[in-house]
Design a protein that fits this description.
This protein starts with a strand and ends with a helix. It has one domain. The strands form 2 sheets. A 5-stranded mixed beta sheet has the order 2-3-4-5-6. The protein has a two-stranded antiparallel sheet with strand order 1-7. It is α+β, with helices and mostly antiparallel strands and 164 residues long. It is elongated, with a radius of gyration of 22 Å. It is 32% helix and 34% strand.
């Protein structure tokens, strides 16, 4: 994945906007979590300043990735859609102060830099949008599950076999 480096503070101050489409194959950390590297992530980053005067960026990701269902172990298309507000501190201490001041769980406070890799943030947001346990709403085929359940013996049957 090619780096897209910005000065996060200048980006926010000038209320800059950037958007793009990045193939999942170029996002190595995201591709590792997927069944295959097909698909693409559409992203938008918009800079701004909070009502408290702190620099902030709105980061939005949208796209479809291939995940493996944890019930039937088959791949399926999962739609990602996420948007987060990132407020920027100059260092860890200021980030902690901002977090305490705003006391809002919907806002993520991070340390901004003058050489921030925007694509790293985009990939982070896509990773955070993945489900903890990927699964179909309704699995298309339960044959694998059914075969495992039909082969399953009662523990007491196993003990009976030992007695013989």
């Amino acid at each position: 994945m090619s780096a897209f480096v910005i000065d996060a503070f200048d980006f926010s101050r000038t209320k800059a906007n950037r958007d793009g489409v990045t193939p999942v194959a170029e996002m190595t950390r995201l591709a590792k979590e997927c069944a295959d590297a097909s698909g693409a992530i559409t992203w938008t980053v918009a800079g701004g300043v909070s009502k408290h005067g702190f620099p902030q960026m709105r980061l939005t990701v949208d796209g479809t990735v291939q995940l493996v269902c944890q019930r039937c172990m088959q791949p399926y298309a999962h739609h990602l859609a996420s948007s987060t507000l990132l407020m920027l501190g100059k260092d860890d201490e200021q980030a902690d102060e901002i977090e305490e001041m705003i006391d809002d769980e919907t806002v993520d406070v991070i340390v901004g830099t003058r050489d921030m890799d925007l694509m790293y943030l985009v990939e982070d947001e896509a990773l955070l949008a993945l489900p903890h346990t990927p699964k179909h709403d309704v699995c298309p085929s339960t044959a694998l599950l059914d075969s495992l359940q039909s082969e399953k013996k009662s523990p007491f049957e196993g003990l009976k076999d030992l007695k013989k």
